[in-house]
Every structure is written in C-alpha cells, then in structure tokens.
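User: I'm writing a tutorial on reading structure tokens. Could you give me a worked example: one chain, its sequence, then its tokens, then a sentence or two explaining what the tokens reveal?
Assistant: Sure. Here is the example chain.
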Amino acid sequence: MLLEQLKQEFPTLHNDPSLVYLDSAASTQTHQRVLDTMNQYYEHKRCNVNRGDFRISQEASAQIEEARQSVANLIKASPEQIMFTAGATEGLNIIAEWYKDAPTVIVTEAEHTANILPWIAQGRTVDNGRLVVLPITERGSIDTNEACKLFDQYPSSVLSIHSHSNVTGIGTDYKKLTKAAHDKGIRVIIDGCQTIGTHEFDRYTVDHAVFSGHKMYGPTGIGFMYSRLPYERYKATRLGGGAISHYDFNGNVDFYDGPTKHEVGTPNVAGIHGLGVAAEYINWVGYDKMKDHFTAIDFAMSDAEIFNIKGLNLIYPSYRQNGRYVYSFTCDGYHPSDLSALVGLDNIALRVGKLCAHPIVNKVSGGKGVVRISPGIYNTKQDIQKLSDSLCKAIKKLT
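And here are its predicted structure tokens:
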C-alpha cells in the first residue's frame, strides 16, 4: 500500500481529514502540485499564449508543449500525436464526427454514455443495422473470440469501446480486438478514461484514444486525444483562431499541421499546464506501485467483509483480484440511493445510480441502479474499515 501521508498531498482530503473518498472512478482528487502549477499561471503568467512575443506569453506557451510531451510520455506516444480537448466526452464527439460516414459502428453494452450518444445522434440504431452492440458475458467481459468473428460481417466499420469499464472495473482485451478489427479494415477507438489513472495504457496500434484529466489526479475541463493517424487528414469540427495560417473571403483556408489544426481559440492554459504535471505525477508514482496498492485495498475489502455483507451483491464477482479497481453492487431489500445517503452521513463518498452507463446497469440491477466503490491511490485500510462499519450500520437501518 502506498504511503499513509499520501493523503496530505491532495488538498480536499488534507482539509477534511474525516472524508473517506471512494468515488475516484467519477473524479479523482487533484494533486497539490497540479494546483500549484495552475495557480502559478494565474498568479504570475496570466496572458494569452501562442500570440505574444513577451516573456510570460512565451513561457506559458512553452509550458503547453512541455505538457504535451509529458502526456505523450505517459502513454509512450509522440507529442504530435496528442491533441488537447475539454475532456474525453468532447474527444469522442469529435471522433464521431470524423467517422459519421462509416457504414456501421460497433460498441459494447457497457460503454459510457459519451461513447453511445454521439453515434445514436447520427441516426444509428440496432434496428437499422448501423449500430451493433456487443453483449457482456456472465463474467462481465466481452467475448473476444465471438467479437472477432463478428468483424467478418462489418468490414470498413468502426469499433468504439472502453479499455476498462466504469461500472465493472473489468478490462477489455482491446489489443486482440484491435488486431482482428484492423485485419477487416475496421478503425478502432478506445475510451481510456478508466485506465489512465490506474493502469498503464498500451496504445498498441489503436487508431484513436481519449482521456480526461479529472480521472488522472488532474484538473477538470481538460483532457487529451491520442491519434495514430495524422490529424491533417481529418476535417476540423470546430473553427476559429489559432488553427489557421491564412484565410480570405474567397474561401481559401490554410490550416496548421498536426493537432494545432483542431485546437481552436484560446486554450485552457492552466488546465493544460496542470494536466502535464498530473501525467508526470503518475509516471513518478508508477503503475507497478499502483497495482500493489489497489491489490492491498482489495484484500482490505475482503478482510473488512464488504464482499460478504448480506443484501450487498458485487456484480460479476468472479473477476476479483484480477486488476479490478472498481466495484459495483446491487442491493436486495433496499434502494441503492438510500444506502448511499446514509453512508454519506458518515462523510463517506460513494457513487450511486446508473453511472452514465444505463444499458449495462439496467441489465444487472433491473433498473434500480447500483452502488459503486472506486478507491484511489490515497485510500487506506482505515478508510475501508470505516466504509464497512458504515455500510453495515446503514443496511441494518434499512432492513
């Protein structure tokens, strides 16, 4: 388990020592160094970027490119493959626009809403055959072999899936799926939000991947996209200053090369600076140490009997202790919202409801929703014991 004093590096936890924060799959806490870097910009370098020859503008602009390099290092990519976005949701919407003419899009039933609605908005449905939904097996994962067979029916389509589910915490064998998809001329898009803050993301040969800063101990309102394919080949979905070198009233427009073509307007300068520091922080901690920490948390949950509490049922339990750092439970005899509310009175933060993943949550809960426990690198065995005590007390009141 990571050092106990790690909590002190996250201001919300430092300022509220009684808080047990177990909602990191929704948003991780932001590290103090990230906030310091963002405040440094606002307090000492507040200006616009890429437009000024004066010192602070040049420094703030250079920090953006340093952040791009830091993010690229985290996923072992090149900086020209990294595009800053407002978050993974914006990234998925942009990519969906790029592939709006694809004959078919293949998703899974466990996708986040942000990886379903942009495709549905294009008029794609299961009934008209333009949307294909891969089912989740009884073990909570995609049947990779069956999915690969399916690709024969949909050449030249798009596969858009998660690398880890925000509901089950279970990983997808996206590398095998990518290889099979590419053999059929299928483009592959990965929602890597639930991976980047806990597991090393192997970009392999995926075509595009999206991530959010607030899932990786960084700021809200900022994220990034990885693209294996040159950004120049894609139409700009947003138009404005900063992305073009020349235009005139006769319709002649010359775009910059690389991600700059798509990074229009004044960027979220402080957010980008903070994102770069968050990436550096994760690299400094190391995914191997994170794995050890989350395994210790899993054992702590076992020792605290959380998986044996009557009426609290872990979905897809057979995948425990296999790189799973998110735990969702259905409730027997009481509503998940009531349980979450009572636990909240003990200053414990859980997530409840359909988790922006309605199809899979409706499937496992009969429409009631689930309670989700998602630890972060700052959680301790004491947090887990406090959670167990609170759950037992709350359930006793509700049953």
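What the tokens reveal: The mean pLDDT is 96. The CA atoms of residues 51 and 57 lie 7 Å apart.
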